[in-house]
Amino acid sequence: MKNNHHELFVRRLAGMSILIAAMLPCLIYVTLSLATIGRDMDHNAAVQARAITKLVTYNPDAWMYATERLIDTVAELRNPEYQVSLVDTSGKQLCKIGFVDSSLFIIERHATFYNYGTEAGTVVVSTSLFPVAWRSLLLMLTGLLLGFSIWKWIKRDIFIQQDLSRAQLEKSLSDLRDSEALFNMLADNTSSLIWMAGLDKRCYWLNKVGQDFSGRRSDQENGNGCAEGVHPDDLQRRFDTYVTSFDKRIEFTMEYRLRRRDGEYRWLVDHGVPRFNDHGVFIGYIGTCIDITDRKEAEIQLHLTQFAMEHASFEVYWISKDAKICYVNQQACKTLGYSKEELENMSIPDISPQLSMAIWNAHWESLKFDKSQFIETQHRCKNGVIFPVEISANYVSFGGHEYNVAYSRDISERKKTEAQIHMLAFYDVLTKLPNRRLLQDRLAQALAAGKRSECYGALMFLDMDHFKPLNDQYGHTTGDLLLVEVAHRLTGCVREMDTVARFGGDEFVVMLSELAVDKEASFQQARNVAEKILSSLSMPYLLTVQRSDGHEESITHLCTSSIGVSLFAGNQEDQNEIMVRADEAMYLTKEKGRNGISFNI
């Protein structure tokens, strides 16, 4: 539209210039002609006066002379557009002389001229304005015709331009109405609250979403009405941000809480943008508000989660598919002795010596299938110390990336406790030998193995002879020293696969597994071990005892043992039967006088 107005102005200016250019030569010519005529009129008056004088002075009967005077007068005028006439006293024209085709001729001559008497005549100089007027008129008509044509062209162009401008204006108004309708439709069907403010900083338009949010009409929200629902803690900050940005004509983004129609305050992010018209003039602001309450709550939960992870008592690792460590918390750094930057540039095999890349790849595929696993492994600190850990591994996939989110806990103390509990449950506290419970478990395993291999096994019951007098004389502490030494000697007499257990008090049990397939051969093997044990236990015991005065004393004690042996096979009696037979054989040895071996096969 702006370009059309400019083009119309240029066309009008050009038309007026052409019209003035056409009329100007006519005006100049007419003005110059009139000035020339006035000058010549003055000159002609003088010539006329001389001619009359000459005609009066000379003989009026000489008509030829009069004619010559007329010719001289016309010639003196030097202008072909002037004529000289001779008239009598009555005003009758006698003769007219003028130029024809640049030569002097008598244009009109009457008979009375030839009979001109003595009466004096009058010379009349007449100027013909016809050539000047005619040419001036012609030029003026031509200029007017040209100007009229140009004006008609300009007028037609003006009308065309007006029609075009009117059509464009109507189209622009129609497009504007369509754009406004489309904008209103989009604004009312979006999920965002949209507002507009004028130069007075007051809201003058709010879309339907905003009205539905607040539960108030548009006229209630206009002006400063939209600020009525802002949370009191956010009101001043919102006002300062809005006014400062408005005065500076700059874009702004701020977050605040606004009361919804149900009374709940919701977090909104308000983004305002200054508006300018086609000429760059500031006309106000347009803004959008988006409900970010869910995002805010998610951010709070994320911050709480991050805080909990960073301050957790266990180690947290985010591990990629290729075993690279992507994230660790502070506890991991504290436990392993590395900085956060160091750990996040390492991989799992660097801190877990039991997890090679091959094992890790297998673990990853298994974890991807199970989604969650508990494993026990070991971690190595920066100083080289290795400690046991329990790991809860979890497969997580989001954003096209896969991670193992692992929670690791140092279980060194737990392992120690478990070992202690295991020792208390399955081992003798004094001698560290398996107790009765573990012996029964080992015997069950030996029976199962013998059933597969068809090999025999042997169970020996041992009781220390004359053990009670040692306790009575030197106390139970000295007796415990003897029992510890007995355990040590028994362990040295058997194979690593065999079991030595303390059955209770001064009674011990030795179980030999996987002897020969032949019963006689197994019997002989068991006898050989029993004799070795009998010999080892009968050796003197050098014991250090604590006297009542606090000094230590070394004593030598001799102690023998009574041994009872029973053979068993995997397809024979149960373990209780086997133990009963061995116990009976031991008591048989005691009846024989102790320090011997008895068999009950």
Largest sheet composition = 5 strands, antiparallel
Tally of separate helices:
18
Sum up the overall morphology in one term: rod-shaped
Task: State the helical fraction.
Answer: 40-55%
Write a concise keyword list for the protein shown above.
601 residues; 5-stranded antiparallel β-sheet; 21 strands; 25% strand
What does this structure look like?
Strand 8 and strand 9 (282-291) form a beta hairpin. Helix content is 51%, strand content 25%. Strands 6-5-9-8-7 form a five-stranded antiparallel sheet, with helices on both faces. The protein has 601 residues and is an alpha+beta fold. 21% of the residues are buried. Helix 16 (476-493) runs antiparallel to helix 17.
In short:
With 601 residues, the chain is an alpha+beta fold.
Give the SSE map.
Elements: H1 2-57, H2 63-77, E1 82-87, E2 93-100, E3 103-109, H3 111-114, E4 122-127, H4 130-189, E5 193-197, E6 203-206, H5 208-214, H6 218-221, H7 232-248, E7 252-259, E8 265-276, E9 282-291, H8 293-310, E10 315-320, E11 325-328, H9 330-336, H10 340-343, H11 348-351, H12 357-370, E12 372-380, E13 386-398, E14 401-410, H13 412-426, H14 436-453, E15 457-464, H15 468-474, H16 476-493, E16 499-504, E17 507-512, H17 519-537, E18 541-546, E19 552-557, E20 561-568, H18 575-591, E21 596-599
Parallel strand pairs: 20-21
Antiparallel strand pairs: 1-2, 1-4, 2-3, 5-6, 5-9, 7-8, 8-9, 10-11, 10-14, 12-13, 13-14, 15-17, 15-20, 16-17, 18-19
Helix pairs in contact: 1-2, 1-4, 15-16, 16-17
